Automatic annotation (TrEMBL):
<dbReference type="Pfam" id="PF00672">
    <property type="entry name" value="HAMP"/>
</dbReference>
<keyword id="KW-0808">Transferase</keyword>
<keyword id="KW-0902">Two-component regulatory system</keyword>
<keyword id="KW-0472">Membrane</keyword>
<dbReference type="InterPro" id="IPR003660">
    <property type="entry name" value="HAMP_dom"/>
</dbReference>
<keyword id="KW-1133">Transmembrane helix</keyword>
<keyword id="KW-0418">Kinase</keyword>
<dbReference type="Pfam" id="PF02518">
    <property type="entry name" value="HATPase_c"/>
</dbReference>
<keyword id="KW-0812">Transmembrane</keyword>
<dbReference type="GO" id="GO:0005886">
    <property type="term" value="C:plasma membrane"/>
</dbReference>
<feature type="transmembrane region" description="Helical">
    <location>
        <begin position="7"/>
        <end position="27"/>
    </location>
</feature>
<dbReference type="InterPro" id="IPR003594">
    <property type="entry name" value="HATPase_dom"/>
</dbReference>
<dbReference type="GO" id="GO:0000155">
    <property type="term" value="F:phosphorelay sensor kinase activity"/>
</dbReference>
<keyword id="KW-0597">Phosphoprotein</keyword>
<dbReference type="InterPro" id="IPR050428">
    <property type="entry name" value="TCS_sensor_his_kinase"/>
</dbReference>
<feature type="domain" description="HAMP">
    <location>
        <begin position="78"/>
        <end position="131"/>
    </location>
</feature>
<dbReference type="InterPro" id="IPR004358">
    <property type="entry name" value="Sig_transdc_His_kin-like_C"/>
</dbReference>
């Protein structure tokens, strides 16, 4: 029950109790006055006439007054609690991308107006903090790219010039780690720019079915080392409006995850259906599965479930975060369904382009 409804009930209870009390007092006073005016011999007649008059007063005066008072009280409480309702709605919509938006103040200087001012000041401080984090991440990513590129080039040069078997193995290992660091830096830079609104997506007609077929062919190559079977169950014609490069990146991220987090001789199933004005993509794999309590966090940055930590799977925990951003930027939805030792399915829904 809301505070407004609770206050209204309290107010109604007090109002009707007051009406009952006033009626009782009126009955008493009328009885006494009639008894005095009629004298002692007519006291019984006065007491008999008193209740009828009191009921008439309560019926024609008390009840209408109570109804008017109740309606007026409800209106006053609604008006008084309206700023609280607005503040609650605004607080429920707060996220890192709209912290700069302010709630309009009433300007009357009451407690609720001051609470609104405090809330606006709090969101302003949070906005500044998020901006500092974004700036730091962008600058750090930019500064890290140069030394990583130089180190990568030097190691490749050393590898080409020739060396003994022990040093060659060590150089190859270092190259792998540098490539992994470069991938992390690129992913962080992409997500930070996306958060800051610095990435503009193209809006062009894209045949999603063609991208799915290309991704299916690439997945067969990626799966050769782990002997994972790739199956394209269905591929309906689907035309969407979006950025072809980002949509391809989305498909590669999801299929790469489905292959990496899989068992040897496992399988990956890809489905694309056009239904009810939407393109519905499903990518399922026979991996170790994910515990239910971990599912809400799978799209968080750098989050990897226990199965990923305990295996020799390379990754930085940014692939699904990037996939979620791409889907959201295209006006779609992404969801993961899984359970331990069960089929894991990622479902992506994108709006079809209406010609």
């Amino acid at each position: 029950m809301t505070i407004r409804n609770r206050l209204t009930l309290w107010y109604a209870s007090i109002l009707f109790a007051s009406t009952f009390l006033i009626t009782a007092l009126a009955y008493r006073e009328l009885s006494a006055e009639r008894a005095e005016s009629r004298g002692g011999s007519n006291r019984e007649a006065a007491e008999e006439d008193g209740p009828e008059d009191v009921v008439s007063i309560a019926l024609w005066c008390g009840i209408p007054a109570a109804v008017v008072g109740l309606a007026g009280g409800w209106w006053l409480m609604r008006k008084a609690m309206n700023p609280v309702v607005k503040l609650t709605e605004a607080a429920s919509k707060v996220h890192e991308s709209n912290l700069h938006e302010k709630i309009a103040r009433s300007g009357n200087g009451d407690e609720l107006d001051k609470l609104t001012e405090v809330f606006n000041a709090m969101t302003a401080r949070l906005d500044q903090s998020f901006n500092r984090i974004r700036e730091f991440t962008l600058h750090a990513s930019h500064e890290l790219k140069t030394p990583l590129t130089v180190m990568h080039g030097e190691l490749e040069t050393a590898l080409r010039e020739g060396t003994d078997a022990g040093n060659k193995e060590r150089i190859v290992s270092q190259l792998d780690e540098i490539q992994r660091l470069t991938k992390i830096v690129d992913g962080l830079s992409l997500l930070t720019k996306a958060d800051a609104g610095l990435i503009t997506l193209k809006r062009e007609k894209v045949r999603l079915s063609d991208l799915v077929k290309d991704c299916y062919e690439d997945a067969q190559i990626l799966a050769q080392s782990t002997k994972v079977q790739i199956e394209l169950k269905s591929c309906d014609e689907a035309l969407v409006l979006g950025d072809r490069h980002r949509l391809r990146q989305l498909l590669l991220n999801l299929t790469d995850n489905a292959i990496k987090y899989n068992q040897e001789n496992g399988s990956v199933a890809i489905e694309l259906r056009a239904e009810a004005g939407e393109a519905r993509l499903k990518i399922s794999n026979t991996g170790p599965g994910i515990f239910p309590e971990m599912l809400p966090r799978v799209f968080d940055r750098f989050f990897r479930c226990d199965a990923a930590h305990n295996s020799a799977v390379e990754g930085c925990g940014l692939g699904l975060s990037i996939a979620q951003w791409i889907v959201t930027a295209h006006g779609g939805r992404i969801e993961m369904i899984s359970a331990p030792k069960a089929i894991t399915t990622v479902m992506v829904t994108l709006p079809l382009h209406q010609a």
